[in-house]
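To whoever picks this up:

The nightly regression suite flagged Carbohydrate ABC transporter membrane protein 1 as changed. Nothing in the input moved, so I suspect the structure step. Input below, exactly as stored in the fixture:
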Amino acid sequence: MFQISRRQNLTENLAGYLFLAPTILILGTFVVLPILYAVFLSLHKVQLLGGIKYEFIGFRNFSRLVEDERVWIALKNTAEYVAIVVPCQTILALVLAVTLNSGIRGKNWWRILYFLPTVTSSAVLTLIFMWIYNTDGLLNDGLAFVGLPTYNWLGDPSVALKGIMIMNIWSTAPFYMVIYLAALQDIPQKLYEAAELDGANTWQQLIYVTIPLLKPVTFFVVAIGIIGTFQLFDQSYIFSGGTGGPNNATLTLVLLIYQAVFRNLQMGYAAAIAFLLAVVIITMTLIQRRLFGGEKM
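Regenerated output under the current build:
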């Protein structure tokens, strides 16, 4: 009897491992091995021309990060971008979701209209906004029409990154709006009816009913927003032609990784920058998890 039970357990375990094998193989091939290889690269100086050669240099790539002024500039630009874009896109997404969930006329058409930027190519949107941001483009024409100062959005270091921020807030908020819409429709209507019976107006219902119940969803939205914004690359690349200009104003950590690999052929140093980016993202996510109580999700 004991042998039969043992044989049955062995068969069940073997079947379980067979079912897990494809997932383990995929994760190992596309996640674990690349991470291990990145660790290997970060500890070596890699020569690509004339055959690939590896020279072990220890933590020299990481110590170089501290001394590289462009790393600090890229980190500052990226942090500024995240600090402004994530709150703005989250608030805008929530406002749009609450508005569309309130029963306004033609809400299905509004949903489609708002969601269009999300399904449009990022490169196409960037090129459109570069045309809008031109010195004699639509934005400056509009500012001049209402008597406001105009800017050189593409060439002025003080506003170049802000131009990318405006574009991405506008284009990414609809994606999070859909997530909030789904969450709003899951809130029981009887909670609003009870709040209304207690004398709560629409604003008080939003503050004391809707927002607290959306806390787990807000944690998800902010976490995804942080991860996405820290990986800003394509808009910055297209805006600056890959240089991070003007005057490093649009230089980001991911763009710096690209330059290290494809322009300077410094794969080891690029791997070190990538680990810096990973540490920053993980740290920010843990801080945000504590703030929003993500452990209760």
